[in-house]
Structure formats: structure tokens, C-alpha cells
């Protein structure tokens, strides 16, 4: 059983965290641990018609963001890694500075100290030098900085197509390969430059 921790913060783009869990739910070999900040729940109401019960139901275990004694706050809790999606500037800065006063930043700090994979789907633009310095610090200590930048080579026809491609790429970082979007230059995917479309069999 692969355990994955999903953190959802108050940045715009809560759809990424939700969709990640929906995709992982298609694999019975994945156990999902969810922690949502209070701000995330407020943002969720603005961005979706989804009920909180539905989102909580996607996780195998839901952790209170104020419970810094939760299982995921310990290095002895084994997991494949953690995805913070979306990740607010506040949470990113907390993780970069080692400020572990809430469960999301604490769990992320544990992932880094245990040399596991932390994926930070930062959602802010433009970025000033302070943001960039904190992101650089996170990258130096092992985090994967993953702004959910849309791809258009696969000619997305819907918002979900765009979201699914970013989610697929995030999960790839955890060596979880769910084919939720066409891949570049692969069978069933998108023909690479110089490759004949019929060779890819889209």
C-alpha cells in the first residue's frame, strides 16, 4: 500500500487537490491522507459546488490542520511523499523557514527531513524576490517546486483536461503513473516533433 499525504491550502486552485485524490482513488493500492487548512475550506466554497463531505470521503484518513500530533507529523509514519496543492505563499514560506505551527507545514517538514518527496504546487503570480528566495531555499533542501502550468500540446478541450495533465505530472514525481492525460511522444499520446502521428496511434 502506497501512502500519499495531500495538503490543500487557501490559495486558488483547490481543484488540483481534489482532482489528485479522485485520480488516486482509481488505484486501490494507494492510501490517501488529507489535511486542509481553514482557509482552504473558505476558498473551496468560492471555487466549487462540491460538498466538504465529498472531498473528505476521497481520503482514507482526514487530519485536523491544528493537530500537530497527528500520525503524519512523525517521521516514523511511512509515506511515498506529500503534495501540497494548491500551495499558498504563506504555507510555502512556513515550510521554507521551518515554521511548523500547523499540520500542513509540520507534515511537509517531516517529509523533507526524512528525504522523501515533497511537491509544492505554488499558486501565485507574479513572484517577487522574497517569494523566489524562499522557493529557491525549498528547492535546495529537496522540495519539488511544481507550479501547475497548463500544457497545450495535447489540445485540451476542457478545464478538466488542463487540471488532469498537471495532476498526472505531479503524481509522476511520486512514481505513481496514472494515465489521465495524453503523454508527449508516447503510444496513445501526442506525436513528438518529427514523429508521424500514426506512429503514436492517438
Low-confidence parts lasting 5 or more residues at pLDDT below 50? none
Radius of gyration: 17 Å
Give the percentage of residues in beta strands. 15-25%
CATH architecture assignment name: 3-Layer(aba) Sandwich
Strand order of the largest sheet: 3-2-1-4-5-6
Total of helices:
8
The CATH superfamily bears the name: Flavin prenyltransferase-like
Which percent bin holds the helix content? 25-40%
Which structural class do the helices and strands define?
Answer: alpha/beta
**Count of domain modules:** 1
CATH third-tier fold name: Rossmann fold
CATH class: Alpha Beta
Give the N-to-C terminal Cα separation. 32 Å
Major beta-sheet overview: 6 strands, parallel
Shape: globular
Q: Give the rounded overall mean pLDDT.
A: 94
Q: Say how many strands there are.
A: 6
**Secondary-structure element order, N to C:** EHEHHEEHHEHEHH
Amino acid at each position: 500500500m502506497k501512502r500519499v499525504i495531500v495538503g490543500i491550502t487557501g490559495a486558488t486552485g483547490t481543484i488540483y487537490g481534489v482532482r489528485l485524490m479522485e485520480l488516486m482513488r482509481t488505484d486501490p493500492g494507494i492510501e490517501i491522507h488529507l489535511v486542509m487548512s481553514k482557509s482552504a475550506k473558505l476558498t473551496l466554497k468560492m471555487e466549487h459546488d462540491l460538498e466538504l463531505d465529498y472531498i473528505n470521503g476521497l481520503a482514507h484518513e482526514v487530519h485536523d490542520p491544528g493537530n500537530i500530533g497527528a500520525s503524519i507529523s512523525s517521521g516514523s509514519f511511512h509515506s511515498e511523499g506529500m503534495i501540497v496543492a494548491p500551495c499558498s505563499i504563506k504555507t510555502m514560506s512556513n515550510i521554507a523557514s521551518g515554521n511548523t505551527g500547523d499540520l500542513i507545514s509540520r507534515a511537509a517538514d517531516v517529509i523533507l527531513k526524512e528525504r522523501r518527496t515533497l511537491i509544492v504546487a505554488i499558486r501565485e503570480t507574479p513572484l517577487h524576490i522574497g517569494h523566489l528566495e524562499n522557493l529557491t531555499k525549498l528547492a535546495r533542501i529537496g522540495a519539488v517546486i511544481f507550479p501547475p502550468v497548463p500544457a497545450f500540446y495535447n489540445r485540451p478541450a476542457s478545464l478538466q483536461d488542463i487540471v488532469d495533465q498537471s495532476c498526472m505530472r505531479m503524481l509522476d514525481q511520486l512514481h505513481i503513473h496514472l494515465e489521465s492525460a495524453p503523454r508527449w511522444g508516447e503510444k496513445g499520446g501526442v506525436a513528438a516533433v518529427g514523429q508521424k502521428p500514426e506512429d503514436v496511434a492517438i
